Each structure stands twice: as structure tokens, then as C-alpha cells.
Give the backbone structure.
Amino acid sequence: MSVVVHEVSHGYAALALGDPTAKYQGRLTLNPLPHLDLVGSIIVPLIGYFAGGFIIGWAKPVPFNPYNLRSAKWGEALVAIAGPLSNISLAVVFGLIIRFASDYSFFSQSFLNLAGFVVFINIILAIFNLIPIPPLDGSKILFTILPYKWQAFRQSLERYGLILVFIFIFLFWQVMNPIVGFLFTLITGRVAF
């Protein structure tokens, strides 16, 4: 559901900036079915599960037309940042529940464990999506900031983006662990899993 919230946030940001593409395609819904991607939501996670370890996946990206956005310069970056911000918001809400749960006895331990998992997953999603490699959101933010002369570099990077993302995951994933652990502790007041 965190991935669905992430994608819907992109769609609502685009709608707020003048592009109704996601709305017309029925993608502004929290129903996970319209967001399922055969490869990213089913096949890749199953391979990861049966391979005995690292499970990754993705939802079908919410479409938007950058030419419909009111802000030609910043519109794409604003749509891109909406996804990670939604994940950060979910992490903070569930993290604050965990942080202050010891003051109240009506939260069960199983709920707090689930809330911890929600915080953990959403921190990972936010950080991972901010990496400036296409097709991740961080690349759209970066290329909005960089001068126009870098557009040719952007196009060449986008051709190999998915390969670069998998290389990052396999070679540099451990770099993210301390960052995720620090943010988890900062938000919840507890040590990460």
C-alpha cells in the first residue's frame, strides 16, 4: 500500500499542477489493482522471495503529461517529490504512534510491530526513490535543477536507468542501511529491526 500511496501522490500533485492524465486513467485511487505491474508487482517480488532473500518491486507508474503542468520549469520536480514526501509522511505518522505508544495501553504489540514495519518500508521507499538515477524520482528532481545543456546526458542515462538501478541495489545497498536505521530511530525512538 505504501507504493500505491506513493504513486497516487504523484497523480494528485500533477492534477494540482494542471494535468488530469492520472485522473482520466482512473489512477487516483488507493485500490491497488489499477496500480499492479505484472513484472514489478508480481514476477520480480516472487523471484526475490523464492531466491531466498531480497524482495523488491514496484507499481505501475502513474502517468502525467509534463506539457500540461502549469510550471514548465519546476512542475516535473514537484510531481516527482510528491511520492517520497508521501512515504516520509506515512513514516512520521506511524513513527509517532510508536514513539508515544508507551504512554497508552490500547495499542497491542502486534500493531506496534506492524507500525514499525510500515515506518521501515516507507523510509526505504523515500530514500531509494530520491536516488538520482532514472526512472527514480530523484533523477527528475536533479535534472530540473541542472542546466538545460545536460538534457542529452539525461536522455542517455534514461536508456540505461533500470540497469543502473539494479547495479545500485546489488553494489551499494549497504550504504543505505545506516541511513535507514538512523532515521528509524530518530522517528520512532527505537532501534531499527
Remarks:
- Residues 2-188 form one domain.
- The mean pLDDT is 89.
- The chain is about 65% helix and 0% strand.
